[in-house]
């Protein structure tokens, strides 16, 4: 693979952002940022704190609409879609993982993971059965009946990763997924995420400030002054 934001292939990217601009108050978080995410690849987005990494992720995931520029997913321009269609994509094609997991505290781990399936219309019994399989993949099947407050941070984050992947998404957006974890829990979570993503062919956009986490990616780009600077292949 060559350095930069292209790898020499002519295949269309799964997700393409072009010249994104996003302003928060008086702060211009993105200033013409462009990036591609290809099917099956793990892409790390790094940069200093406040560089706009999370804003870029939110635009790519259809959570936030850019003020200018375009985000295209499999021929659809996300920023032009009605909210109903965006919500459908987030339920089926996209999975999102945040730094603190954002599990629903009143639900067990099993029901947290089953919830996206049930929202998509899957029968509860089937959804819970599939959720159990995903908890097994991430090594936390034994926590199935535990609530988030009863689990360690690393366990809860692996539950959050299982929830993001349970619907079989085409892309997962992970925003500092190990930022609240110690080094061992971080390694366990990233090993589980990358192994599962490669096994299922899921593309992952990984926002991180940690070079050790970025090293799990196939490719790394850096946000600097609101624009994307290619760094080539991660180690």
From TrEMBL:
Q: Is Secreted a UniProt keyword of this protein? A: no
Positions of the ABC transporter domain: 15-235
A molecular function (GO) held by this record is: ATP binding
Alphabetized UniProt keyword annotations: ATP-binding, Nucleotide-binding, Transport
Origin superkingdom: Bacteria
**Sorted alphabetically, which Pfam families does this protein's record hold?**
ABC_tran
Identify the InterPro entries for this entry: AAA+_ATPase, ABC_transporter-like_ATP-bd, ABC_transporter-like_CS, ABC_transpr_LolD-like, MacB-like_ATP-bd, P-loop_NTPase
What is the designated name of this protein? ABC transporter ATP-binding protein
Source organism: Streptomyces ambofaciens
Q: Which PROSITE patterns match?
A: ABC_TRANSPORTER_1 (PS00211), ABC_TRANSPORTER_2 (PS50893)
